[in-house]
Amino acid sequence: MSWNTFGRVLRFTTWGESHGPALGAVVDGCPPGLALDESAIQPFLDARRPGTSKFTTQRKEPDQVRILSGTFEGKTTGTPISLMIENVDQRSKAYSEVAKAYRPGHADYAYDAKYGLRDYRGGGRSSARETAARVAAGAVARLVIPEVTITAYVSEIGGDAIDREAFDAAQIAQNPFFCPDAWAAKRWEKLVDDARLAGSSLGAVVECVAEGVAAGWGAPIYAKLDADLASAMMGINAVKGVEIGEGMAAARLRGEENADPMRPGAQGAPEFLANHAGGVAGGISTGQPVVVRVAFKPTSSILIAQPTVTREGEATDLATKGRHDPCVGIRGTPVVAAMMALVLADHKLLHRAQCG
Amino acid sequence: MSWNTFGRVLRFTTWGESHGPALGAVVDGCPPGLALDESAIQPFLDARRPGTSKFTTQRKEPDQVRILSGTFEGKTTGTPISLMIENVDQRSKAYSEVAKAYRPGHADYAYDAKYGLRDYRGGGRSSARETAARVAAGAVARLVIPEVTITAYVSEIGGDAIDREAFDAAQIAQNPFFCPDAWAAKRWEKLVDDARLAGSSLGAVVECVAEGVAAGWGAPIYAKLDADLASAMMGINAVKGVEIGEGMAAARLRGEENADPMRPGAQGAPEFLANHAGGVAGGISTGQPVVVRVAFKPTSSILIAQPTVTREGEATDLATKGRHDPCVGIRGTPVVAAMMALVLADHKLLHRAQCG
Amino acid sequence: MSWNTFGRVLRFTTWGESHGPALGAVVDGCPPGLALDESAIQPFLDARRPGTSKFTTQRKEPDQVRILSGTFEGKTTGTPISLMIENVDQRSKAYSEVAKAYRPGHADYAYDAKYGLRDYRGGGRSSARETAARVAAGAVARLVIPEVTITAYVSEIGGDAIDREAFDAAQIAQNPFFCPDAWAAKRWEKLVDDARLAGSSLGAVVECVAEGVAAGWGAPIYAKLDADLASAMMGINAVKGVEIGEGMAAARLRGEENADPMRPGAQGAPEFLANHAGGVAGGISTGQPVVVRVAFKPTSSILIAQPTVTREGEATDLATKGRHDPCVGIRGTPVVAAMMALVLADHKLLHRAQCG
Amino acid sequence: MSWNTFGRVLRFTTWGESHGPALGAVVDGCPPGLALDESAIQPFLDARRPGTSKFTTQRKEPDQVRILSGTFEGKTTGTPISLMIENVDQRSKAYSEVAKAYRPGHADYAYDAKYGLRDYRGGGRSSARETAARVAAGAVARLVIPEVTITAYVSEIGGDAIDREAFDAAQIAQNPFFCPDAWAAKRWEKLVDDARLAGSSLGAVVECVAEGVAAGWGAPIYAKLDADLASAMMGINAVKGVEIGEGMAAARLRGEENADPMRPGAQGAPEFLANHAGGVAGGISTGQPVVVRVAFKPTSSILIAQPTVTREGEATDLATKGRHDPCVGIRGTPVVAAMMALVLADHKLLHRAQCG
User: Fold this and answer.
1) What ipTM was reported for this prediction?
2) In sequence order, what are the residues at sequence separation of 6 or more whose Cβ sits closer than 8 angstroms to the Cβ of residue C138?
3) Predicted model pTM
């Protein structure tokens, strides 16, 4: 199947391939009357844009978004918002080898097994270029939840983690790694560059924290807030693990260590003394920060040749030339933030539907 | 919101509370002509049933399933299959304290914040008793994918992991922990019992492997097989992390370490030399075993009192008496397997819809 | 496919066959805090109940509804509401002929062509008994829209229409035909009884008017209020036509005849000088009464033998014995009202989701 | 709400306003490997295109479609197909009056009541220009059902019906009315032109017949084939009534008149001796032609002034100048055919999902 729509009330549908003329998103269900023009979206695309440092792919894409519908006189009208980004830097010539053989770690074989044919240019629909459309849609979602602050950052690259004590949110925009720890960012420069020069690649962990989420969002049992976040994050290219709050580490805690005790708070709502839960209990937000952690595998496209097979089933070796991110998790960071915004905005509206 | 339906083509809807008269599931979209009566479902419910050892809750529920619709002369008719399980052992009297104060780590406060009222008896709808309905639905899903073998087991309790070298699938049904390592099972007896006697609880990791999944299942971009699995698993009570293949560890690997190289295989399909991907690439199954790992937090209901607040916002301390699992991950194992079956069966049908 | 769920935010799923042990509905997405017990549902079921006059089927079903989940202390909790109605008067013995041959006008052949097998007892899932579940669900929906008054009535039987001048809503509950015109009701007694005695059946037109619907409900373009009503009504057993406002007659009007001119109204909202539109423009409610008209075909089960074929493809003639409504439109009236309630309640919540 | 997606497996999402830069559709779930380029779509758009005769609006739109994604080397890849049509002839200047006052019979007031603001230029999203996107999507759907022949035609304008005896399918493309009766087409020339010159408008009835539909398509109970068709058709701009088979007339038939008797057929399947049902029984196709009839109201935009109110609630009179279809049902004909194709293609895939 092909299922390119996400969300329940605030829904978006993306389309487009890596080397087609354009890609885009249609955002449906957005409340009316919100101020929206391209300038509300472009900064988020710029943060994800390739080619801004040597630590990301050198493909040059301006990623200029154009709003084709859904606004009038600078405001959303409540009708579908069509967003389009033209592809500019398509070099299809590099793909003759990929047309013939399956890149290990990529979706090439899976797409062929499923559909019987595939657009091999840059991975076609399976390319991470699709995430530009998510980022654009996410910028619209943010308008729906102005009370929420979303912070996403890389907390670990290639096993080298930030120092939590040195966390400084202001640093995130100051280095090419979305790193909140200035020293770690320094170390990562060499780490990532070495991997790049070796023709290899590195994995990363991205964390995302949403503050200002009201208690009560989430739709148990099968559209729990954490389940929808898990789906949103696991669906990002190269993601292999998703954690909420303590995540996998919760399996090693005892009940009393993992409890989030409460005390009477200032505003009537309880004050939590811990947030092991990551802001979600029973699939519903508790009013605490919503904390998600996501593992990106190392970029599968590497210059180190790997054994593989051709479409005809013959053995060959393949090194993926071309312009690739040495650590795809870096540019995944704005995508994680966008998916957080999209899930939260959808759930805010879902909650309003049932509970007013 | 309330969203109690899961799936896209093979869909199921669950209903019921911990202390209501019954709970159930309606399974819709099941292919016709499959042999189905209660005996095809009951063994799976029996595996999840409480009260079978001192390592699980002592609530006595026979969990007898009854098929109310959707079959005729022992076969599915293609119409909705209604499954009902009556609650037998409801002791509502134990819940007066819980009515007044929020149990830390539970969904009590979140439900109240959302709905303004809650059925506090045994957690109401947020009780893990709901998962009995999933297990029943999962048994139906298994009929749709007879070619797939699903194996679920506990790989770690309270930080004590199995020895992968000692893995023996035949052991899983031989101990009360769904443990494939006989020695680990021995150790866990004491580990879990100590926690129980201390009024504490332990977390666990559950792994689930599905073999026999054809290449090509999955619906990119927003119903990827791994994304749907992530949603399915994260939505199980007490789950805080979900991994596919290497999972979080993928973030620490280099590209060449994480590659799944291919060689020509016997049947035309490639043979993979590794399965770091856990059987999914680009959201589509590759034909390798689908591997999911799930972290269960320690049961929140513990006898060790925790600071909390009452509904009126006053400080109090609460120890959760009653009959609770000292390690909820154990009985979560058949639930993980059921959700795996439900996701795979749905995707098999989805794939058939588009690709024939 | 099998698709037994209706609605987008307020959703219900029905299950059950004519001659199974029970049938039911699971209503999901209902707002919390609404007063609900069986007594809020039973009167609507009683209005639809068979066997109350000689003008309906003589099958004796008490149609007692039982609420199995979703309420606590007499109020909805926001979790799924499971409603069950047991089948009492199942006489399967009458169906041996039907097992072998297809009843003309019925779904027998279509079900067999689709599923390869069918529950032939009373039509199985295709029986109009399923509509009892809709009526029960509709009673819950009414709680969501207390400001709306829904009036449904039969306006025509066998081509004999009511006199619009003689319309008296108080009459509807006073005769076995849901007829608002006392004289027409008198005429219909003989009309329907003659058809019954002749072993024949009659068609009917049912109208349904919803007053008090706020302007602004409806979800253009593909969940327009009128489109959802059309789907809801056309899906009722035996319905072959659906009209909104002028309906088919609009095709014969000129633009100036069909206009609904406006004048300033008392409450700020415009006052409409006509309602040709039936309360819906552009798929959105206008604040005027929502008017739907539905054509029921004559009951297909008649005692007059018809040519047909057996499952083996041999020619035969079949007269449908058993206990049938001589005019299925009569008991369809509460079903039409229920579907109106379900669509409106869903759209009220959908509108609130997007527009607050 | 805003809900701009239609379908369950084969889904399409439309976007765009009458006077925005473009409009389009994203078609998702299309099977892979189907031959598709713009030339497979353009003829259907040309049939709907405005300005081709004096009997339609004089707005000049080339309606050139562009495929932006979802194909590779001339074939569908199974990924979303993005279709875009640029708006060329936007004359926004004519809309100052409409900005201030509500056009009777239009969605102006309803949109304002719902969203609090509206794009008044040409009706914005409520304009029938949106149906160009449906026609483009419908052309893709036709590729999924090559075995089905869809014929749509106008059977009545302003109360003047075709002569069924004179039906000649070859005529449909020979006159500007999609009329299968050459004499009726002649009469309609004067009829429609007179209405146009009088500043008035006329309603119409459109019929659509799909031949070659296999028995077994349809998803009871809440995605019945006829219910989905009803939704699809009622959602077309200006449609007020939908009939399947005998439609409203079924209410006036007796059971024996409405029966569709069967006799053994040549190919094993029964041969039906009549088709009162319009090819659908129990919501499932019977293998007979699927017959739908749709009533279009007269165009609401007329030059004859009507009483209305301004946004500020003051009385005024409004004649809708601009370029309008004197009979919107004419150009609605290709839209009806497109919606038929979209519903049937979706149900073909849905059926395959469940029943293989």
Assistant:
1) 0.97
2) C44, C337, C338, C339, C340, C341, C342
3) 0.97
